[in-house]
Amino acid sequence: MAKLSSLVQHIEAFVDVSRPANQQTVSIDAVASLLKNDLLTIETLVKEMEMYLTTTDNIIRARGILLLGEVLTCLTENPLGNATVHSLIRFFTDRLADWQALHGALLGCLALLRRKSDAGMVTGSDARALAESYVKNLQVQSLGQHDRQMCFELLECLLSGYPNDVASLGDVLVYGICEAIDGEKDPRCLMVTFHLVEILAQVFPDPSGPLAHYAADSFEILSSYFPVHFTHPKSDDLYVKRDDLSKALMLAFSSTPFYEPFAIPLLLEKLSSSLPSAKVDSLKYLSSCASKYGVDRMEKHSREIWLALKDTIFTLSSENVLSVVSESPDAMGFQENEVVKEGLICLHHIILQNSNLFINLIVEDEDVEVIFRSVTSCRSYNDITVEDRKKLYMLGRILSVSAQVSSSSCSRIFQTFFLRLMDILGVPLDGSFLLSEKLNSGALYLCIELLAACKNLVLDSQEYASKSFSLEDTCCSLLRNVSAALTDALSSILVLRMDQGVSEDIYSGVKGLQYLATFPGFLPISKPLFENILAIFMSIITSGNERALLWKLSLKALVQIGTFIEKYHDSEKGLGYMNIVIEKFIELICTDDSVMSFRLKLEAITDIGSTGKDFMLRITQGMEEAISTNFYEACIKENLKAVEILLPLLECYSSKVLPWFQNTGDFEKVVLNFAINIWNQIENILTVSTCFQKKDLLDATMMAMSLAVGMCSEENQAMIVQKAYNVLSLVTSLPLNESLPLSAPINVEGLEHSQYLYSFSSVDEWLISLFASVIMAVRPQTEIPNVKLILKLFVSVLLRGLVPAAQALGSMINKLPVKLNSTEGSSTCTLEEAMDIIFEANLWSLSVNDPLRKCNIMDRNKVGITNLFLNIYENVTVPTQAIVGLAWIGKGLLMRGHEKVKEITMLFLRCLLSSGKIRIFPVQQDSLGDCNGPDIDPFVMRSAADAFHVLLGDSEVCLNRRCHATIRPLYKQHFFSIMMPILLSSVAESDSSTSRHFLYRAFAHVISGSPVIAVLAEAKKLIAVILDALSTLSVDVMDKDLIYSLILTLSAILTDENERDAVTENAHIIIDRLIGLTSYSHKMLVRETAIQCLTALCGLPYVRIYPMRTQVLRAILKALDDPKRIVRQEAVRCRQAWESISSRSLQF
Fold first, then answer.
1. How many whole angstroms from its chain centre is CA 215?
2. Same domain, yes or no, for 806 and 911?
3. Any idea what the CATH number is for the domain that residue 1144 is in?
4. What are the residue boundaries of the MMS19 N-terminal domain, all occurrences included (predicted)?
5. Does 943 lie in the same domain as 818?
6. What is the pLDDT of residue 484?
7. Which of 653, 766, 632 is nearest to 707 (CA)?
8. Surface-to-core class of residue 845, CB atoms within 10 Å of its CB (0-12 exposed, 13-18 middle, 19+ buried)
């Protein structure tokens, strides 16, 4: 009883129109939930609602029927008995005559019609009865938009779900549908109505059926919408686009051949419209209709269609004719507007349907013949008029499209035009070609278009060696006869034009040779001919005139040929390509007897190699051979020329070869061999020489090594690390022997006077740096031998300024495990053990000038970084090299989210405060005390400030995803939220100008490295400090990049709507600071951004900015004379914006 009482309450709540809409929605959900959970049956619901469904009160009856329809909509997947479905659909069918309750009735009918068979469906007889009631009772166009849309969706369900049952209604149904859709204007409804017509054609395909009888009437309704003219505003959220509507109408047009007598004349008529969109739609519809109506119906329109297409293509081609010559290798040709493009597509579909008929119309057309004679009568391209150039291009496109339809159409076009073109060009059908000084450019262009069409026809077919392409075909026979002479002709053109720099015939010559070389193997392009074409291109490439258009086109042609070989797996041509092109390029990079620059050779060879895996593998082998040879020359014989070769080789390997393999996959063996070979080379060199001098060569080698190692699996990385460690162990001056105690800290005082620390050779730097590049790139799980010894080695060399060692140390700290697994050997260590080794080293106790201070007597279990440094400060300053090392260690800790980074950050802050107190971490207050000490050297303070850039900056060398770093989500935001209050309080309490300067520098690094969203969240607190930092740092030219980063952050705050109040409050001081930066002479981007910020400030309240108007305009007046054009442009915009304030003042 409680459930029934609740049900009645929900029914009454919905029926009551005075209730709010959300309460009515809750009622629907509640009733549907009872039914879904089997707490209520649909029969019980109907029984309880009987009064509401049958009452004479129109409003209550309409609400009751609507509730039932809404509930059924929620139950489309819940099973219902056949009898229940029958009763419900009969009820709603009868209700279609009740116009006051029509909305609910339509909703209920749709809910029942959309049910699946396993949930209980409407029967065919009930569907037929529903259709009869629909036709009899509904005047669709008199209804509102939503009800009309449901009416059309109801018809859609009936026609698609019950086609045989409703088809028995015949003429009545078709007439009723035509009457329903006539005059519809709403785009959402039209999408359904157009689909209705499409389905209707499937239901009534009989030529003597009702749709054929009403074809004229129904098409008259459809034709009123063509072409689609969409007038709804963009803001109207209809989810219907013009293109979607036009496509739906096109499917309706082409849905039945019964529309052919009406559609084709209409489309041909609309081709003469002045609206380009109407022409494009006409061509699209014509293509669709022609393919659907059939050959027999379309044959009678063939001549009219051809004449209309010919007129469209030749008349409406672009007025801006492009020269065939351009710096871009793809630039030959003309600009096609959309109408012409669609016309050519339509021509292809028309010919495809009845090729013999339309090919005859084309080749026998008098206009085509006149144009052909005209464009081939001029020898030089320059002699062809602009109008004839347009016709030349369009004729070439028409012939190309025609030839690409089928083998028979290609043969007919070749037989009609290709033979004549060969005769005009002087190319004999057999025999050799004699070079003529005056070539016919128009004939050459048409010849190349036909070659391309023939090649594309063959390659576009699924099996280009099928029976549809016979060697006896006219096109194949002609190509077989003229291929050799045509190749001679095209190569002669290139020879003739080579010294002329730019020529219109160059493009045609290169493309023609490329097309001949990329014909499939079964066609009559012989192996010697193919290899001859490759040799021609290679001779052009080796000439070294890379600035010439011919050189660029030849390289592109070779790339296209290589791509063709790889795509179609042509092994015979692949062998010739390897021998003639790839091997020649390898020879070029291994020798120095070419006029080509070495970097140009590498650019060309990597473009060629990228066409296929086998080609790139061979090129990689050749490059590694060149690297090995030149490594020996550079390090043993100190050959500077070898260094000049090595640098671009390694850069090319890093920037092009390795990324290519990574993108294509299956690269493990390649990169492993490269890395191992580099270490083998170094190992061999160490036995005879210790000459490693070039820093740029080291950098290039490190980058290539890091990329290669990063791409390897853990197993292969371990092999590389072990090999590198073995080579490193060969150097006796490095402390990598097992006798070095791991538990004892490195004695800095002893190292100071040792020969090792102050005789750090170039070999040591090379080996440690290269070894560091390996360590930076390994995965966290990769096994590293003697981790503790390696840690001590890196710590030991920090004071020599070896940054790669610091970066590798940070990478190790970032990746070492917190705990060791039982499977891991004793050679590794945990993160805490590594930190103990670093802390015990005490290398930071070194001073640049002062003697060492022993700090090893401190208990390592009780001493933290901060305590250690506070003791050091009493006598010495911290070396900048140690700070750099600590910065990278801190970055590794920060990225993995380790709390110990706080202690390192405290040290940097202590360096920035030459005297004073740090009240940051309460737990450390006792150990810090007052921390009063002597002033710190400014170089040390600068290093401490720049350490924050290391902490938050993104590194391309290490500690990134490519190097498999451990990265805690939102670690930058977390660091920002902790550090920013500390920095702000430190700046406020600092009483030293030097200290304040470097605090601002650290602040700028933190702001620049943090995500903008984090900065915006604290914008109110930061605006004043940012402005002070801009003022302080603008004095020193060394801080210009920081100034730019700060002003970018400020611009983000100024343009954020949420910070408008804070910006308004500080408007005067912001404008003052920006005015000063408009004349910042050290960086153009600062001036540009400052002016852009001033422009943005014009949107602030009038009373806040008007008093500053004169000062701003005065500053902008000076900016109008800025030496940089982009600054002057921004100044003009800014002046216009601020001058407009005057007009605002009048309105105010």
1. 49
2. yes
3. 1.25.10.10
4. 46-314
5. yes
6. 83
7. 653
8. buried
Q: How far apart are CA 138 and CA 1051, in angstroms?
A: 62
pLDDT value, residue 502? 54
**1076 plus 955 within the same structural domain:** no
Domain hosting residue 287, numbered range: 257-353
* Sign of the dihedral defined by the CA atoms of residues 861, 863, 865, 868, in that order: negative
Query: Residue 579 domain-assigned?
Result: no
Q: What is the pLDDT of residue 874?
A: 40
Q: What angle do CA 559, 560, 565 make, to 5 degrees?
A: 100
CA angle 425, 441, 364 (to 5 degrees): 70
Arithmetic mean of pLDDT over the chain = 83
pLDDT of 326 higher than 60: no
| Helix 831-841 vs helix 803-815: crossing angle, to nearest 10 | 150
Asked which of 975, 1010, 1045 is the last residue of a domain, the reply is 1010
501 lies in a domain? yes
- Same domain for 319 and 399? no
3-state secondary structure 678-747: HHHHHHHHHCCCCCCCCHHHHHHHHHHHHHHHHHCCHHHHHHHHHHHHHHHHCCCCCCCCCCCCCCCCCC
Q: Are 406 and 268 part of one and the same domain?
A: no
**Which residues, 6+ apart, have CB-to-CB distance to 655 below 8 Å?**
none
Given the structure tokens 């490095």, which residue do they identify?
734
**pLDDT over 70 (residue 755):** no
Neighbours of 302 (CB within 10 A): 18
Model confidence at 449: pLDDT above 90: yes
pLDDT bracket for residue 858 (50, 70, 90):
very low
**What is the distance between the alpha carbons of residues 846 and 673, in angstroms, rounded to a whole number?**
42
Max mean pLDDT among 102-116, 633-647, 840-854 falls in 102-116
Residue type, 50: E
Structural tokens at position 305: 């269609």
Structure tokens at 647: 């640098």
DSSP string, 924-946: GHHHHTT---PPPPHHHHHHHHH
Average pLDDT value for residue range 1006-1020: 92
pLDDT at 980 over 90: yes
CB of 502 within 8 A of CB of 325? Answer: yes
Q: What is the 3-state secondary structure (H, E, C) of 879-897?
A: CHHHHHHHHHHHHHHHHHC
Q: What is the count of structural domains for the chain? A: 4
- One-letter amino acid for residue 759 of the chain: S
Cβ atoms within 10 Å of 452's Cβ, excluding its own? 19
**Cα separation of 850 and 853, whole Å?**
9
H helix runs in 610-694, sequence order: 613-636, 640-652, 658-664, 668-686
Look at residues 510, 525, 540 and tell me which one is the last residue of a structural domain. Answer: 525
The amino acid at residue 530 is F
Average pLDDT over residues 328-339: 57
- Listed in sequence order, the residues at least 6 apart from 185 whose beta carbon sits closer than 8 Å to its beta carbon are none
C-alpha to C-alpha distance for 627 and 674, rounded to whole angstroms: 10
- Which string of DSSP letters, residue by residue, matches 18-74? TS-HHHHHHHHHHHHHHHHTTSS-HHHHHHHTHHHHH-S-HHHHHHHHHHHHHHHHT
pLDDT for res 346: 95
The one-letter amino acid at 1007? I
- Is residue 592 packed enough to be buried (19+ CB in 10 Å), middle (13-18) or exposed (0-12)? exposed
Phi-psi region of 929 (alpha: psi -120 to 50; beta: other; left: phi over 0): left
Q: Over range 482-500, report the average pLDDT.
A: 79
Q: What is the DSSP letter of 301?
A: T
Shared domain for 938 and 1047, answered yes or no, is no
- Phi first, then psi, for residue 533 (nearest 5°) are -65, -45
56 CB-contact burial (10 Å; exposed 0-12 / middle 13-18 / buried 19+) = exposed
> Residue 588: exposed, middle, or buried by beta-carbon count in 10 A (0-12, 13-18, 19+)?
buried
